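Reviewers of the previous submission asked for a worked example of the structure-prediction workflow described in the proposal, so we include one complete record here. The input consisted solely of the amino acid sequence. No template or homolog information was supplied to the procedure at any stage.
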Amino acid sequence: MENLQQKIENLNNQSNYNEAAELAANTMKIRIKREWLKYDYHFAGDKSQRHIFKIKLSRNNKSFSFKFGQSIKDYAKEPTIYQILSCLQKCGVGTFENFCGDFGYDEDSRKAEKIYKSVCREFLNMQKLFNEKELEVLALIQ
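From that input alone, the workflow returned the following structure tokens.
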């Protein structure tokens, strides 16, 4: 893993983010399936519609799926490996209070609590596919 980590850091230093993500995905044997769902609003508060995909990450006979709202700028393209891997939660966020403090949410907000629970679920799914060292390497994809 250390060799892979160094290669990814070198690619990142050269601004080769897509290549770094592809290297991580290929080395870790991550399979990514993209399925276009619709063109619609994805995030709460969206002012513009975007392409929404169902993404399925698979590895070692385990998988999880999630919805992915493509960048409005990249409206005509499937999400890249980099775009997908960079958005995933690769570390724990601590308590709800820590999460709110770190990310600027109101602790009295139901919306914030819903987002917090989603982020925690996503991290649990990532832990099912990757060990701690692998998650550290994937955290370099940002």
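The chain has one domain: 2-138. We consider this example representative of the routine output the project will generate in years two and three.
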